[in-house]
Prior knowledge:
Elements: E1 12-14, E2 17-21, E3 27-28, H1 42-50, E4 62-66, H2 68-76, E5 82-85, H3 98-110, E6 115-120, H4 123-130, H5 135-140, E7 165-170, H6 174-185, E8 191-196, E9 220-221, E10 224-225, E11 228-232, E12 242-243, H7 244-257, E13 260-265, E14 270-272, E15 275-276
Parallel strand pairs: 1-5, 5-6, 6-7, 7-8, 8-11, 11-13, 12-14
Antiparallel strand pairs: 2-3, 2-4, 9-10, 14-15
Helix pairs in contact: 2-3, 4-6
Bound molecules: iron/sulfur cluster (SF4).
Amino acid sequence: MGETTGIQWTGSTWTPIRARHRVTGKVGWHCTKPSAGCKFCYSESLNKRLGTGEGYTPNAPVDVFLDEKMLRAPLRWRAPRKIFVCSMTDLFGEFVTDTMIDRVFAVMAASPQHTYQVLTKRAERMRTYLCNHEVGARWAFSGDRKPLVCAGTAVEWTRHGLPNVWIGCSVENQQMADNRIPVLLNTPAAVRFLSVEPLLAPMNVAFSQTSTWSAASDYRINGRRVDWIIVGGESGAGARRCDLEWIGFIVDQCKAAKVACFVKQLGKNAYAMDKRWPITDSKGGNIDDFPDDLKIRQYPA
Ligand code: SF4
């Protein structure tokens, strides 16, 4: 899936993990739904219409595979881009093998001109994978035994991960924030980020000044903290309500902690003071519709 995108916080999307229907042979995508934010997954809707035709269930009759042409596409893109990795699925889904992940990371390591944005709901698997210090070696010689990075090229793998790869988690409610943010903070990464979308309820992502994580509201571990927060309401068919006060609460917390904040969209069913907030596009993504205090689209330094 393709190069250009309407997702405001990135430049391109790149989903080399694909799926083929075992009966019809139709090619699309696959995923499963680990939490409430997935209820109206846009990728699943698209896959039902234009892909394998299946829903995102563990028993879908599909085979997941790595699309070789798509895998290598960023190596051909000479000009630097921001690239959202696996926008149509989850790179750390249980249906993706370690070898597939190795090869995706090998391409990211081999194209340092790009900035990759890896976003998952499977924070634990991502941490386990990225804490394994053998993975750096695997990125150089992974997959089909033909190295994607030549033998003489050192992969810059440090305890901070690859310098051109931002690592993020989706959190849609307080429970997911409490579960996933501490895991994210214990994951090696050059830049850590949260996608708080769809925002389904008020959420505390407060950052304290202490050096030890001690409570659900204190998202800082051993000096590590989140560098960037994207926030937005839900869009698409069946979109759930999002109150602008909830978005404002996230913005305020980012300001207080000096964390870069990106208000992506107000959502299809935006409310303020319990009244419907007018929007001029289907997602509430037109910044001209935002109240002034939510017109914030920052990136990490
Ligand atoms: S993890 Fe992402 S792609 Fe997968 S079902 Fe959930 S929202 Fe859809």
